[in-house]
Structure of Glutamate racemase:
Amino acid sequence: MINKLNNTISSKQPIGVFDSGYGGLTILDELIKSMPEYDFIYLGDNARAPYGTRSFDVIYEYTLQAVEKLFSMGCQLVVLACNTASAKALRTIQQRDLPRLAPNRRVLGVIRPSVEVLGSLSKSKHVGVLGTVGTVRSESYLMEMAKLYPDFIVTQEACPTWVPLVENREFENEGGRYFIKKHIESLMAKDELIDTLILACTHYPILQNEIRKVLPDHIKLISQGNIVASSLIDYLERHPEIDEVCSKQGMLKFYTTESISDFEEKASVFLKRELKAQHIALN
Amino acid sequence: MINKLNNTISSKQPIGVFDSGYGGLTILDELIKSMPEYDFIYLGDNARAPYGTRSFDVIYEYTLQAVEKLFSMGCQLVVLACNTASAKALRTIQQRDLPRLAPNRRVLGVIRPSVEVLGSLSKSKHVGVLGTVGTVRSESYLMEMAKLYPDFIVTQEACPTWVPLVENREFENEGGRYFIKKHIESLMAKDELIDTLILACTHYPILQNEIRKVLPDHIKLISQGNIVASSLIDYLERHPEIDEVCSKQGMLKFYTTESISDFEEKASVFLKRELKAQHIALN
């Protein structure tokens, strides 16, 4: 199906945005604000979310299925709006699968642009990364920082309770605040010179207000949504051949592997708007 | 493959024990203690766990895949050691799929035996059910209680943070205790006459000590492991034709849809013993 679609590249198509669940909607939200004329297809693998605790093999397999599905729907460009998928699957997909599947199409992640901004904002050259167990264990942020900013000290902290706190809206109480404080203090205790922190999971921006309450004022806190949006605009300017095949009618479509009503209800909270979704199978 | 295996029913086979993840190991632990001579195959769908928040359709589809896999491995009897799967998939599998797939095989759940004991232990006839969102929404406990004990008052409480607390071992601290206390108090506030509570999720027995600390002494707290074990022994006594095809060499096998090393590490904590697992694909 993909090969067939490669032959119809001339028709313009939406940009695909993939996430394991709802978190990628915080990225999509910024994409819509910054690039309102573009069309987007959001695909959430909610029936198998969260990915953050899963192994490399499983995350790679599930992410590749999603990318192939978005390709089969016509997308020429897919953004992995998920740190875990970007950390554990992007490189293999770009290097091994794309040349075979669809050499003219592109898959981009959220880590590279985030690392660029993280390095540019820190003065002390000591930065912190808050992420899922999967993202932290992959060491993707460490590797990307080492390439771009080899003289920086990067310290990571895995926050495995934060996604459940967000998904169950349990972060504005004593229990939620305990786990937010715990990980911020643990990270800062590992390196007191940190002056910039990145929320390296797309769920975490929802916790931003609570995190700010326990974070010393001088420490910068970065979310990825606007970083990814700026980076995508920049990418399309540098690659007019890709921009040319992106359709621009301000259209949004949502697909989920879960039940439509569950998705519509939860997604509208993340995106702060009503939406209609369609069901899709990935395996 | 299933039809083929139906013809070889004469050979004795292990009992299949299925759970979405690790929680079912608390059931398996009791089965091994009570029925040490039987062989068991444990199958954990860890690559797609947890099921507790998923929709009916997804849980049914995933559970049926697991049952078919255990059948294809020869199991004549499968225990769904998962409340969410028992609540949302068991009835359809028993009524619609079994007659078609394997009329001589059996699939049992954990809810019916739990309800029998729950009703027998309560004097006030006011009982409480602590479970996942999926189990609570399914109302399976309410329906089973209404059949067996129609004059009882059953009150439910969904505890969506408890599975992540167990899986991340974050329950013996201030944050964990906040969420344990929150749901116990919320349930007791709904009905002060409750004298018996059931932990209707296989993860929750791990929280038993912490729950006991915030629960008034006169309230009985029931775990499912030994209930399911007693019920299974009773079932096999009443169905010698099924007991006859259960192999009895004290053998244990573990299969997971996740990475083997991740499973072996986490499962050994639940089962308090070292174990070797094999990878299996379900879709």
In short: Residues 236 and 243 of chain B are 5 Å apart (CA to CA).
